[in-house]
Specification:
7 helices, two-stranded antiparallel sheet, about 230 residues, globular
């Protein structure tokens, strides 16, 4: 696949989990990180206030569409340095989706430790629409306000994925995870393999700055309106 060509070779997996490889923060970048945190707090608080009626409406529709579970789905994810936290999302799958995962693993379409299948039978009718518009991610504004995440950064992985990371791939845990990133705004993101996804995250870590963050925020808005899908 073209998107995965010319990727740097990665180290082989080991059973022992290596420590996170830290990316040094130059003195001139500390001001950027401080401003980024202020921006995260202000924008997430403002968005939660403005979108509260929308959030309530989505929660009601989820319950009406599938009353077998609550509207909010929580899941343990890995943040900066591998620290675990509880991530919030609108529920887009049936209530027992985690229990059904084992039976679906043989059909995984994503390379590497991540799991993804195009027509996941666990997704509800309304959940499919939420994923297509990325509205299922809105509760993560709470994670951003709490400091678990940032608006822009690599998507937070699952612990079961992290234990399979190589030392090279664990570099993506050296920064705060985010709501959106390079991978999130790719029109063909569902066609990218795991190594290509990791390279996009590491590219963000190398290049991150104020201008790039705002570029990704605007591109994410375009992606939502394009409904690039599940």
């Amino acid at each position: 696949m073209k998107a995965a060509e010319n990727l740097e070779a990665v180290m082989a997996d080991t059973e022992e989990i290596p420590p996170v490889i830290q990316v040094s923060t130059p003195r001139q970048a500390r001001g950027y990180l401080w401003c980024k945190r202020v921006q995260d707090v202000v924008l997430s608080a403002l968005a939660l206030a403005v979108l509260s009626p929308v959030l309530l409406l989505i929660a009601i529709i989820i319950f009406v569409d599938d009353p077998s579970g609550g509207p909010i789905f929580t899941q343990t994810r890995c943040g900066q340095g591998g620290k675990e936290f509880r991530l919030y999302k609108f529920r887009t799958m049936c209530a027992d989706a985690e229990k059904q995962l084992e039976t679906l693993l043989p059909y995984n379409e994503m390379s590497g430790p991540a799991f993804k299948i195009r027509d996941d039978p666990r997704i509800t009718r309304f959940g499919r629409l939420l994923r297509a518009t990325c509205l299922d991610e809105l509760p993560q504004l709470i994670n951003i306000l709490r400091g678990d995440m940032s608006i822009v950064g690599p998507r937070p992985p699952l612990p079961r994925e992290v234990v399979k990371y190589t030392a090279y791939q664990r570099q993506r845990l050296s920064v705060q995870p985010g709501l959106t990133c390079f991978w999130q705004v790719q029109p063909d993101r569902n066609e990218l393999d795991f190594d290509a996804w990791m390279e996009l995250d590491l590219r963000y870590i190398r290049e991150r700055n104020w201008r790039l963050d705002w570029k990704l925020i605007f591109l994410t808005t375009k992606t939502v309106f394009r409904r690039d899908g599940i």
